[in-house]
Amino acid sequence: MADAFEPKMTAFVCNWCTYAGADLTGTSRIKYQSNVRVIRLPCTGRIDFMMVMKAFSRGSDGVIISGCHPNDCHYTSGNYHARRRWMVFRDLMDFMGIDLRRVTFSWVSAAEGAKWAELVNEATNTVRALGPYKEIQQLTAVGID
Amino acid sequence: MSERYTLTEAAVGTLIDTIAKSGRRVLGPKLVANRIEITDLKTFAELAQDGQAVVSAKGVVFPKVERLFKYRFEGGKTIALDDVEPNAQPTVLFGVRPCEARAFHALDVVFNWDSKDKFFNARMANTTVVGMACTKADESCFCTSIGSRPDDTQDSDILLSPRKAGGFVAEVLTEKGKVLVALAKDAFQPLAGNAELIPPATVAPAFDAKDLQQKLAAKFDSPLWAEQSLRCIGCGACAFVCPTCVCFDMQDEADTKQGQRLRSWDSCGMRIFTLHASGHNPRDKQSQRWRQRVYHKFSYYPERLGTLGCVGCGKCSRACPVDMNLKQHLAEAASKG
Amino acid sequence: MEDLNNKAKQLLESGAVKVVIGYGKGTGDTRRPIFVRAAEHTGDLVFDAACTQNLATYLTKAEVRAMGKMAIVAIPSTLRSILQLAAEKQLREENVLALTVLDGSLRELATFAAIEETVATIPDAISNADQQMIDKLTAMSVSERRAFWAAELNRCVKCYACRSSCPMCYCERCTMDSNRPQWIPVASHAVGNLEYHMVRAMHLAGRCVQCGTCGAACPVGIPVHLLTIFAEGTVRQHFGQKGGASAKLDYAMTTFKPDDKETFIR
Q1: Residues of A in contact with C198 (CB under 8 A)
Q2: Which of B137, B237, B303, C72 is deepest in the core (most CB within 10 A)?
C-alpha cells in the first residue's frame, strides 16, 4: 500500500506560554498528531517573518506560530510587536502568492493543553487536505543553471 | 574562408525550425512586454530585428547562477564531493548583434587565462552564434569607438545582413557556421550578383579606444572620476547587463547534511565588492569603483589580455537607473588632456 | 524654471548651500541627477514633467553630504522622503533645503515643519497604472499571483538597482550583504529573488513614500515598487500610519496598541 501523504508541520512557539502549554498537553496524556516539529523561542516577538518562508522552502508543508495571549507576554509586549508584524507579513505573503491556509497563528497559554492539541490537529488536517507544498519546495531548484 | 549565401525570410524561418528539430536550443532577441529579451525563439516573425536585448546573451555561457559542485557531510570529518556536469545544452544564438557576438571573445580570454574554466568552455563549445548586422543604432551605441562596426563579422559563426529587397545575405565564417548550413542546405542559396544590402547603421565614433587607453595611463589620480561618479548609486545594473563583465561571487549554500557551491554574477560597482574581512576597503568611495570599471575594461584588459573589455553595445548606459551614459563619460575621459 | 535657476544661483553665491541636487538634461529626452556647486552652472538645472526620479537617495550619499549643506529640487515624493529620513535621524534640518515647484510657483522650504505643511496639502497619488496593477493582482487567485511573481522575479539578476535607488535603503550594512548569518541567499535563483524582495518590502512597510523609483530603476522591468507600495499600504490600512508624513517618527512596526485588531489569530 502506498504511503499516504503526511504533512511536515513546523511550529514556532514561545517558551513561556505555548511551549509550556504543549508540555501540559503531554502530561495530560492528550494525544495529537505527531507531524509537528516544535521550535522553541523565547517569545513570539523574536520570530522573524522570514522564518515562515524558510520553513516552507526547507520542506515544511504547513507552519504554526503560537505565543502568549495579549497582555500575558512574559516580556510584556513581545507578542504585541509580533501581532503587528504578522498583520503586515500575512498580507504581503498573500500578495506574493503564498498560500495562507498553510499558516496558522494562535495564542495558546501555558494552561491550554487541550487547545494546543486541537490547534495542531486542525492545522495538520487542513494541510493534509491541501497536499505537499510543492510550489515553494521546488523553488529551491529553480534558477540555478 | 567565409562563404556567402542568400536566405529569404521564409528560409530563415525554415532554418530556425530545422535547428530546433535537430535538438538544439534556439535563443534570440524577442520582444516580451515591450522589452527585448534573449529567449526561446520559435519563428522568424518573433525575432526582434532592431534594437538590443536589455540583458546580454552571456548567460548562455556564464549564467547568472551556476552550480559548480555539491557536497554531503557523511559523518565525522568525511565530506563527499559530487561533481556537476555543466549544462552545456547545444545552443544557437540567433540574431544577436555583432557587438554581442564579439563579447564572447572577451569572456573567453578571462575564462581561459590562467586556468581553463570547465563550465564556460563546455558551454561555449556547444554554442553557435548567428549574428545580425545592425541597420539602426541608438544614442547609446558606440561600437565604432572601440574598433568595431555595426556589420562586424568578428566572433560570429554566421553573420546575417538584411537586403534591400528583403531576406538576408549570410556570411558563413567558421566550422560551426558550416555545420548549421549543412543542417538546412536548401535554406541557403548561393549569392548571385550584387548583395544589395541595407546600409549598416551610422554610428559616429565618440572616442578612440586606443587613444583612451594611452590617456588613461596618466589619469589615475584625476578628479574626473569623482565628478563623473557623483550620480552613480553603486548598483550592479551595468555589470550584469554587460556582455563582457565577468566578475563573479562564490556562495556555499548548505545545511547540516549537504550543500552546493554556486557561482553568481558580481559587480565591482557595489561597495562591498572589495571589502576585506579586516574591515578595510581599498575601494570604499564610488569614484574609486567607477575608475576601476573604466580602467579594467579600457586599460588593464588590453594591457594584460590583448583585447578590450568592452564591445560598445551601450547596454550599460541603457540599463543605468541614473543615466551614467558611459559613451559620454568615456569620450570625456579621452578628450581632456 | 527660471525661478529655480535664479534661486539656485542665489543660494550658491551667498554660500547658503554648497550643492544643489537637481535634474539636468539626460540622454535623449530623459533627465539625470546633477550636482551643481558653482553658480555659473545653475543654468543646467531643469524641472519639468520628465523629472520623476526621487533624488532623495543622494541626501544620504557620503560624497554628496561631504560637500556641505544641500539644497534639493524636490518632487512631492522627495519631500516625503526628507521627512521620513528626518524622522529616522538620517537628516538634520540645518543640512538640507528643499526647493519645490507647486502650482507653477517655486517654494523654498527651509524647515521640516514647512515641508510637513506642504506635504499635507499634496494628495497622495499612486499612478493610475500602478493602482490598476495592484487591483488586478489583488483580484487574482493566490496561485495566479504566485505565477505572476514567479515569472517577474525570474528576470531578477540581484543588481540591487532597486535598493540603491531607494532613499530609504540607506543602511550601510544591509541585511542582504550579511553573511554571519547569511539570512537571504545572495545568488539570483528563485529562492534568493523571492526572499530578497519579500524582505525588502517588509523593511519598507510604513517607510516607503510610494515614489516608484525602485520599479523605474529595475533594468529588467520588474514592478518591484508594487511590493513596497503594497506593504506601505497595508500598514496604512491596519494602523493608520504612513511613510513620509512627518519629521517625527511614527513607525507602526516598532510600536503597538494593546487593542490592535486582527482577524486571523485563533
Answers
A1: 49-50, 53, 92-93, 96
A2: B237
User: Which residues have CB under 8 Å from A3's CB, separation 6+?
Assistant: none
Across the interface, of B37, B240, B249, the residue whose CB is closest to C157 is B240
Does 3.40.1000 match the CATH number of domain A9-138?
no
> How many structural domains are present in chain B?
1
Q: Report d(CA A59, CA A53) in Å as an integer.
A: 10
Looking at the structure, do residues C171 and C202 belong to the same domain, yes or no?
yes
ipTM of the shown complex: 0.94
pLDDT tens across B159-213, in order? 999 999 999 999 999 999 999 999 999 999 999 888 899 999 999 999 999 999 9
Note the pTM of the prediction, 2 decimals. Answer: 0.95
In whole angstroms, give the CA distance from residue B147 to residue B316: 18
Please tell me the distance in Å from B59's CA to the nearest CA on chain C: 11
Same domain assignment for residues C39 and C64:
yes
- Spell out which residues of chain A touch residue C192, defining contact as CB-CB under 8 Å: 143
Are A89 and C202 a contacting pair at CB < 8 A? Answer: yes
Element (H, E) at B94: strand B91-96
Q: Do C266 and A140 touch (CB under 8 A)?
A: no
Domain range holding C192?
A: 128-254
- Confidence class of residue B1 from pLDDT cuts 50, 70 and 90? low
Q: Please, are residues C189 and A144 in contact by the beta-carbon 8 Å criterion?
A: yes
**Nearest CB to C198: which of A53, A83, A87?**
A53
